[in-house]
Amino acid sequence: MAPVPFSSKDGKGVRVLFVAQHPSLLSGWRSLIRQMNEDSRFIIKVLLCPFLHPLTSASATLHSMRQALIDENISFCTADAINPEHYRPHVAFLQNPYDETRPARFKSAALAQAGIRVAYIPYGLEMGGGAWNLKAQFDLPVQRQAWRIFARSERHKAMFAKYCRSGSNHVVVTGHPKFDNKPTEATQSLPAQPLFAAKSKGRRTILWTPHFSVTQTPAWSTFTLYSETIFETFAKRPDLFLLVRPHPLFYKAMRDNGHWTEDGEATFRQMLEYSENMALDDTPDYQSAFNASSALMTDVGSFLLEYLATDKPLLYLHHPEGLGMNDDSALVESLYKAAGTNDIINFVNMIAAGEDDRLNMRLRAKSEFLFGLNENIAKNICDIIYDSLHQGDDWSPAFDPSHSDSQLKSENYWRESTTTYLAPPEYYEKKTLILEEQLSKLKNIHSAIDIGCGDGKYSLQIAKHAKRVQAYELSANLVAQAHESAQLNNAKNITFIQNELDDIAPFEKFDLISCLGVTSCVIDSLKFIHFLQRLKSLAKPGATLMLIDSLSTAADQFAEDQSGYQACYRSISDYKTLVTQLGFELSEEILITEARERQLVNKLFIFKAIFSS
Question: Which positions ≥6 away from 301 have C-beta within 8 Å?
Fold first, then answer.
């Protein structure tokens, strides 16, 4: 459906819908809702919408969101009382990019199909790395087809250009409107939250915000690494106060991952309640905790950037086996960093002494990582929306980027494939021997991923050298064969998954990334570049990347045969350059076979990840 038409000549305002789902995210909209309510150019409605998530109760969250709107005197309507096809706003703001958390009629695709322009302000100031996280931050359907995304900095917009399949033309740098919610001198002088404020008795307060990713596969949470040290340190420092504010999903994650029994949460809460110098903050809005604290200790997450705006000391709790950060990881150079327990103890002692030798570094970092701190960011967003509609800018990216016919034929060929063996048997025998020789040289492969695994022949070979293997394949037929082979070989450390290349985004990073004979079947150049970027996002620092492919010793060559097989044999020099530009170093290049008359070679490349995050 065509976008809802707008004309400033009819004297009517811009209709804006805010789809509100979670109270903890309200801070990102607060100043914008207030600004639009005061601006005669806009007519707004706030929609109370369920938040559907496996780690939280939909009813409890809906109640909390409703109560937060009531407490802040924000008028709202319920999802049952509105039909976006009848009330057709010009613009709809979504609170998060996860369409699965919303009822069907409020998903981004349904809104777009109704002609409603989707707008998105990232709910957090994203910092996490890894393939899944980069996709969630920049390349889900919401980000791909939004009419406008409002970015916190030029660095942030550059990440959309890098990771979003739609590019960055729909991204505008305005700064994040949550920084409009600055406390006044009057509010700062009042008890920010009576329960913990009274208990702190004026002591220097360190805020600690544990992440919920307490999974077996390390992500960002350092709670299981450092909690004992933190509690023991504060038990010995009655002159200081510890304020603990876990992520809202932390409690259920601790139970689901076996760190707590059923009464674990109650024990945790009682320990903090009975402590003389510790307290828990469970309030919906974290601003009171920010105001009351003298310093912050936090895992990878939004608070790394949000707390930067306070100018107070900030300790980044590093997980050595975790997922690391996105392209904003350079921020850490301006922060204090804990790579072990001694770093935490030293930071606590420093705060107690009132010292902060990194203050000037953080002040310089603010201008680079956070735009518009001294401006009315909400007003700037209002002006951009109104001016864009007034000028007739109805363009939105396509919901799904289009592919060439050759790319679609290639994917269909492999989707229906029952075999990957297209060369003479001696080729595969030589390939197996070379792989075995190179795999035997690799040490401490705790985790490996094999992309385009076919019938699992080489995945099983990798599994003999790795503790855990995830293997992905497009063809259901080949995945079934791979499962059967794994059972016959009693290979219990390998998991086979049917998935499209674009959707391979596991929630971890790997010591070994294997992609054997796949990239030449990625025909479209843009898809190929994004796929290489995905390979990087799967790699731990120091990881090994193994690629086998057929390449041209001259210019790019395209091949097609009667079976439907399609291939792009890229220039070998360009191929190696593209991979090394991502932060990999070529350590081995081994010829498997060649066709000199066609100027083609098939080689195994072994790269090492030389990036740090």
Answer: 124, 127, 128, 209, 211, 220, 247
Long-range contacts of 259-266 (CB under 8 A, 24+ apart): 259/214, 259/224
In the structure encoding, which two tokens stand for residue 385, read together? 């929306």
Q: Provide the pairing of β-strand 336-338 with 314-317.
A: parallel
The token pair at 127 is 């910092």
Whole-model pTM: value is 0.88
Based on the number of CB atoms within 10 Å of its own CB, is 121 exposed (0-12), middle (13-18) or buried (19 or more)?
buried
CATH among 3.40.50.2000, 3.40.630.120, 2.60.120.10, 3.40.50.720 for 185-365? 3.40.50.2000
Residue spans of the domains in the chain: they are 8-176+373-390, 185-365, 405-609
**Digit-coded pLDDT (tens) for 35-89:** 999 999 999 999 999 999 887 889 999 999 999 999 999 999 998 888 766 788 9
Q: Quick one: which of 413, 407, 405 has its CA closest to 527? A: 407
CATH number, span 405-609: 3.40.50.150
**Residue 272 to residue 601: CA distance in whole angstroms:** 64
Give the Cα separation of 162 and 159 in Å (integer): 5
- Sequence-distant (6+) residues with CB within 8 A of 244 are 208, 209, 210, 272, 278, 279, 280, 281
Compute the chain's Rg from CA coordinates.
26
First to last CA, the chain: 43
Integer Cα distance of 256 and 558 in angstroms: 50
Question: How far is residue 120's CA from residue 539's CA, in Å, rounded to a whole number?
Answer: 29
Q: Are 405 and 566 in contact (CB under 8 A)?
A: no
Give which of 30, 37, 201, 229 is closest to 121, Cα–Cα. Answer: 30
Neighbours of 25 (CB within 10 A): 19
Summarize pLDDT for 509-519 with one digit per residue, the tens.
999 999 999 99
Same CATH topology for 8-176+373-390 and 405-609? yes
- The fold adopted by the segment(s) 8-176+373-390 is Rossmann fold (3.40.50)
